[in-house]
Specification:
The chain is mainly alpha-helical and 258 residues long. The protein contains 10 helices and no strands. 38% of the residues are buried.
């Protein structure tokens, strides 16, 4: 697909914003799950994504001069908040936290791409042809239109997964791995700012690379359905998690009264 030069900046900006939305949705889901069950249990259930995220974190800490030990890499997540300042920290200021966040994100993104290409094609084929918008809203009307579109995307994601054609074990494995990889996009312990900074850096690097290397916008467009499915899945998980959290809180209140 040919893309005009004036549309390049909008594509980079939209991709950055939607990636940030993906990270925030993952953060919300992880926090809700960690409020219902122990964080260690949640991370154990998300084991494939947890291993990739922790491996990327360890490599990032080694690059930035941080001290790595077996207990320190996971200690912060046992306190229930991915943003808790209790894990090992890089020694390089400002850029260090960004690197420590960027490597797990890149590793999880690469793993998610492979999983979707190997196992998720049937689900991707049933997703809507007009996924998340590639333009940022310029008016309040456009903002609400996009918000309604994202809600519809969550519904379309559920329908694609529940389709009668998608009942084999490959799709079940794909859904599990997609959940593990997308939810583990949540910020690492004590590094929420670095995580948001990593999203901005990714967008800036893509834009700078695109100014000297042709084809970057086309690559982003090729990955857009994957980003759309990830955002739709996380929004669906957030909705379900909010309902589950409400039921859990109501049950706890009833048990206290009784």
């Amino acid at each position: 697909m040919a893309i005009s030069a004036r549309s390049h900046a909008m594509i980079y900006a939209a991709a950055t914003v939607w990636l940030a939305v993906m990270v925030l949705l993952a953060w919300g889901v992880h926090c809700l799950w960690s409020s219902i069950a122990k964080p260690r249990t949640v991370n154990g259930v998300l084991l494939p994504g947890t291993l990739i995220a922790q491996l990327g974190q360890i490599v990032g800490l080694l690059i930035t001069g941080g001290t790595v030990n077996t207990s320190g890499a996971t200690r912060g997540e046992d306190k229930g908040s991915p943003a808790g300042d209790s894990g090992p920290q890089p020694k390089i200021p400002i850029i260090g936290p960004v690197i420590v966040a960027l490597l797990p994100m890149a590793a999880l993104g690469a793993a998610l791409y492979v999983v979707m290409m190997k196992l998720g094609v049937p689900v991707l084929a049933r997703m809507p042809k007009d996924p998340i918008p590639m333009e940022l809203p310029a008016t309040m009307s456009a903002f609400w239109d996009q918000l309604r579109g994202v809600i519809s995307l969550a519904e379309a994601t559920l329908n694609a997964v529940r389709s009668p054609e998608n009942t084999n074990w490959h799709v079940a494995v794909f859904v599990y791995l997609m959940i593990c990889l997308t939810v583990r996009m949540a910020p690492l312990p004590g590094n929420a700012r670095g995580h948001i900074g990593a999203v901005v850096v990714l967008g800036a690097v893509a834009w700078l690379t695109g100014t000297v290397t042709p084809g970057i916008p086309e690559i982003i467009l090729g990955a857009w359905p994957i980003l759309s499915l990830a955002v739709g899945s996380l929004l669906l998980l957030l909705m379900i998690s909010l309902i589950a959290r409400g039921v859990f809180s109501a049950f706890q209140m009833m048990m206290t009264i009784c």
